Amino acid sequence: MKLISYNLQNDKHSAVGILTERGVIPLSTLMPDAPNRIEALIQSPYWEKLLKQPISTDIPALSPDSLNWLPPIHRPGKILCVGLNYRDHALEGGRQVTEYPTIFLKASSAIIGHRQTVHLPQVSQMVDFEAELAVVIGEQVINCSTEHAYKYIAGYTILNDITARDYQRRTSQWTMGKSCDTFAPLGPVLVTADEIEDPHNLEITSTLNSNEMQRSNTRHLIFSIPFLIEYISSVMTLEPGDIISTGTPAGVGSFREPPVFLKSGDLVAITVEKIGSLQNPVL
Asked: Which ranges constitute the DSSP H helices of 16-67?
């Protein structure tokens, strides 16, 4: 099931919808009392009911183009990003594959949704893109083993880990370069975990103004999703709605010759197989 968060034109109230071939079915038509945000929905009794809910073809659907798309998760407690988790990306940056994953935090205030605008900050002239598969946690996780990790996953989405490279490189701590407002495009949908049998076999690409920049497959992840959940939950509690962004493959702009950085008027699209395409204009 593909879930979206949206609002209607001239309406600030968010809603949850189910994206189907016919269009978007408002969740409220199936479950009038269900929460209107996905992060609340996955913690509610309605979540399990929804996963088992047959979707009638008689229910009217909204056109996706008539909606304002919002991020599927509005304000997660944590966005945990994994650096250098594809071998080719580590090597293109002159780094070696490490024994342990590089984990850093990205501010949740940076989140925007599909089709929303990335705003270039005045403080940076080196803004880059990073295509990433993101995992959304569905239950509280403490000291989880790899063999039980999948049961804690609510679903999968796409995150563009936009980065101000000049700020990232000022110190060994990356948070400032990763957390500018609008630097975490997320979406377009949350695909429930039952829909993706193997998250380690998904094609992942990025394009800049329709020119392909990155192409890989999640089978090339150095540290697997179950390992990341085990590793992170051994130190900190993961809560429902938390996001683990699994890293980006080679092809980012800063390591190209000459380097390619985002500029006003650009359109960035991140596509992950079975999830969709996250598209954001740049201003």
From this structure: 38-41, 46-51
